[in-house]
Amino acid sequence: MLALAALQSLRFTPLAVAYRVARVYARLLDFAIPRLRRTAEFNLAMALPEQDAAQIIDGVFGSIARLLVSFARFPSIGRENVAEWIRCEGTEHYE
């Protein structure tokens, strides 16, 4: 129920506001489930010890925020506005 309310709040707010709100939601997820960050820190320490794990993890939560907005707005994406959401690259290779 709470997740549906969060998605609805992202669906009906202006896009710039929705992205800011989604970042807050992602940050709340980070704080609510600290195991996610701990697991990521452990795995990154093994896989990429020379990298800044916190920066990578924060980037992942930023990506989650963008995905939340896209998922919330998916029902309103149609032919007339799909170019605002999807960028096609490399179509010259297909053609």
Structural account:
This protein has about 100 residues and is mostly helical. The chain is built from five helices and no strands. It is flat, with a radius of gyration of 17 Å. The mean pLDDT is about 95.
Summarize the structure.
With 95 residues, the protein is mainly alpha-helical. The chain has five helices and no strands.
Notable characteristics:
mainly alpha, 5 helices
| Sequence stretches where pLDDT stays below 50 over 5 or more residues | none
Mean pLDDT: 94
Query: Which class best fits the helix and strand makeup?
Result: mainly alpha
How many helices does DSSP assign? 5
Shape: flat
Helix-strand pattern: HHHHH
End-to-end C-alpha gap: 45 Å
Percentage of residues in strands: under 5%
The amount of helix comes to over 70%
Describe the secondary structure blueprint for this structure:
Layout: H1 2-12, H2 15-32, H3 34-47, H4 53-73, H5 91-94
